[in-house]
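Good morning N.,

You mentioned wanting to compare the apo and holo forms, so I went ahead and generated the holo version with iron/sulfur cluster. This is what I fed in:
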Amino acid sequence: MKSQEPLDSSVKEMLDVAKTSNVSTVWDRYQSQLPQCGFGESGICCRNCLQGPCRISPFGDGPDVGVCGASADTIVARNLIRGIAGGAASHSGHGKHLAHVLKKVAKGEALAYGVKEAAKLNAVAARLGIPTENRSTKEIAGDVAQAALDEFSERETPNAWAATTLTAGRVAKLNELKVMPYGIDSIIAEIMHRTTLGVDADPVNLLLGGIKGAIADFAGCHLGTDLADILFGIPAPSVSEANMGVIKEKAVNIALHGHNPLLSDMIVATSREPEILAEAKAAGAEQGIQLMGICCTGNEVLMRHGVPTVTTAVSQELPILTGAIDAMIVDYQCVYPSLPTVAACFGTPLITTMDIAKIPGATHIEFDEDHASEKAREIIRIAITAFKRRCNKPVHIPPKTSKVVAGFSTETIVGALAKLNADDPLQPLVDNIVNGNIQGVVLFAGCSNIKVGHDQNFVAIAKELIARNILVLATGCGAGAFARNGLLDPQATLDYAGDGLKAVLTAIGEANGLNGPLPPILHMGSCVDNSRPVDIAVALANKLKVDIPQLPVVASAPEYKTEKALAIGTWAATLGLPTHLGLVPPVVGSKLVTRILTQDIKELTGGYFIVEPDPILAAEKIFNAIQERRQNLNIST
Ligand code: SF4
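and this is what came out, ligand included:
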């Protein structure tokens, strides 16, 4: 598949710069991989033991089993659920990292951190059955942190972050299917065990094991969001900007990339200290220190601090090509190993910070929560020194920026709705879904993939749906795509929304003193934060006394690429959502697995996968899935 043209003019402009500078980017490397392996793309290549690699002929003119006798169905199912395990390990590893820091806070260590959101700490504690009355914040924090750490090893009770956050109906369904996880790390290990040579060969049993891993991923995501909110605060809407134009020629430009807010939050705080600002000014940075985000670390600092977004995962190399980035600081996940090579061409320090995520050619400054402020200061000073080196050298900064309103946590959305009905905040949402002003809700999630024209699918599908009065929520690089393409600007509601949606978003905006509508797409955070829209769906289902599979709610990952997205998509379908995928997943080598995921699973969970690469057809199918649910609920269309 040939990569299509990016949508964003800044990305196109920087790709021209890459060409004239003779710098290889992900676009070039993708072309040099073509044609990619059809066996791999179909999921029918196995190297789970050293008798392989084995591959199955998709055309029936070669071997139909591997050396050990594994069929295409077995191989595809095994490969898929190993991917889900990888995704669950990543999300939950991020959550576990936060739990360790919260535990240190409770013990009086890691002094740069604290409990910023005591009300959320108490709410999470209450949900987990941890006593809060007459106890100090530190005592409660210690118990919540320990409860989070207890989620990982094998346990006798279901994972609390799954069992206490879903509808009773979903919990019963997960128990009925025997896919409720009992320990996140334990399930990940179980998947690795059952997929090794000579263990589980039953594709249905394997897929159920994968679903259990996906629910473990959901627990890890929810835990990560809860603990981040407790440590760093619940996001609230703020106005910011997105795209390459946020880079300032005469500022110390620092890009924050990866996923975990632990270091980036500290860099935001340190960059605002008068002493460090004075150092930047003394170095000649008359525009001060300009932070900017990439990928989900970018979403974390945008949601909580209004730090602008410069770009998203696929185009992560391009800001460096401006020649104006004075340090790119990365933590983990979705960070391309190519970055130090690109950075070396422009004298940009590329700083890795996590002991599990080093890259040859980068400068490694090990992050240490006990000395978080000092580490942040050390890193910013490296950027100031780099700024001095680049002074008066030519830069090429595309000027484009888009206005962004972001920071729509669950609590913020409920709070905004409460301005319309303080006694029953969800009632206005229900009323407008029932009367058809809002036809349904679509959550756009997932990453960006070089195989898709950058941002093309996200933007085309969302515009179609907004025009049809669908309320759109977004997380991760999807939210970043909307940010850079002007769809997180309230003006976009006036430009693109259907009349019903426009009226609702305007009423909420006016009631909240915004003198206009909310943006047509509500940015709910990073990929881990996909638990936030689930919380809203659960609250809606409980209010309506139905279960999630009955709600007119759909998930879409139009440009996904990571194992994390496989895990999220699988739990979305398991929780009962029609789940659109904009790329064909590596399962088509098995007719059985393909049929289970697109059809049979609907009988089991109520959710299912819609695979549609064409954005206009995808919008049609998503809309039709919403209409089917509206009809089943007997509400107007
Ligand atoms: Fe081949 Fe079976 Fe080994 Fe896979 S597990 S590489 S199919 S022999």
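The mean pLDDT is 95.

Happy to go through it together on a call whenever suits you.

Best,
F.
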